[in-house]
Design goal:
Elements: E1 5-9, H1 18-30, E2 38-40, H2 54-58, H3 65-77, E3 80-88, E4 93-100, E5 106-110, E6 130-133, E7 136-142, H4 149-157, E8 162-167, H5 174-186, E9 191-196, E10 200-201, E11 209-210, E12 216-218, E13 224-227, E14 234-238, H6 241-250
Parallel strand pairs: 1-2, 2-3, 7-8, 8-9
Antiparallel strand pairs: 1-14, 3-4, 4-5, 6-7, 9-12, 10-11, 12-13
Length: about 260
């Protein structure tokens, strides 16, 4: 298996401004090295978030032109793309990740564990989602989902090779993000790629939030492979499949799971 390359495209997000966010995503994708196979963006990368009815106005349907544009960017840049957005399915709103490939395949995951005031405006998803990526079978995870060991255990039973985590982690709790990414790598002996939002949310009549950034790639043994701080930068890492094989032989916990 060739060594896949993943980019965590750490960015600030323009809350409620889908056009600006799509433009920023396109700019980041065009700047990637040609060897990158997958680009991971933060939670709510396309829409941003505010915990009131304004976020419903910015929400996207899966068939909207904006998602077609994301798919076109994946095709134009020959890279798989994972990006988050507020989804409107006509009946309810969700915190959703979209994984799109250059050939047009789309996979969606709705965040199952809502954080704090997300509960006021969004419904929870129900299903664990995996997708076949250049890294192998990959579980999709959104931010607060990291805190739930049962989510990690279910992916371990499926023997996923990686987790792609989109986050918008508050800066005050950045160390928790670091710890949970490492734990989720080790307890499933898999790669973890976490892409965090940076910058701040500043909207009228909404609490200001400073975001942690700290996008990180973690090895299957729980060691940090590479990490950013808070700058709007792209973290590019090779995920050597031999490292995964070696660690699974050394730490055979998957062989003992029922």
């Amino acid at each position: 298996m060739p060594t896949p390359t993943v980019a965590a495209c750490q960015m600030a997000v323009a809350d409620l401004d889908v056009s600006a966010n799509l433009a920023a995503v396109g700019e980041r994708l065009r700047a990637l090295d040609a060897r990158v196979d997958v680009a991971v963006f933060p939670e709510y990368a396309l829409t941003g978030f505010v915990p009131d009815e304004r976020v419903h106005d910015a929400a996207l349907d899966r068939d909207d032109d904006e998602l077609d544009r994301l798919a076109a960017l994946a095709n134009e840049n020959d890279v798989d793309v994972l990006a988050g957005f507020v989804e409107d399915d006509g009946d309810a709103h969700y915190n959703t990740l979209g994984y799109v490939t250059p050939d047009g395949d789309r996979t969606f995951y709705r965040k199952r564990h809502r954080w704090s005031d997300e509960r006021d405006v969004l419904e929870p998803g129900e299903d664990a989602i995996t997708v076949e990526t250049p890294v192998g079978t990959t579980g999709l995870v959104t931010c607060y989902d990291l805190n739930f060991v049962e989510v990690s255990a279910a992916f371990a039973r499926k023997r996923v090779d990686a987790l792609f985590v989109a986050g918008a982690w508050p800066g005050a709790y950045g160390q928790n993000w670091d710890l949970l990414l490492r734990a989720r790598a080790l307890d499933g002996v898999r790669w973890v790629v976490g892409c965090g939002r940076t910058g701040r949310r500043e909207l009228p009549n909404a609490r200001t939030v400073e975001y942690a950034g700290r996008s990180t790639v973690v090895r299957p043994d729980g060691a940090v492979h590479a990490r950013l701080n808070r700058g709007e930068r792209t973290l590019v890492a090779d995920l050597d499949p031999e490292i995964l094989d070696e660690q699974r032989a050394f730490i055979p916990v998957l062989d003992e799971r029922s």
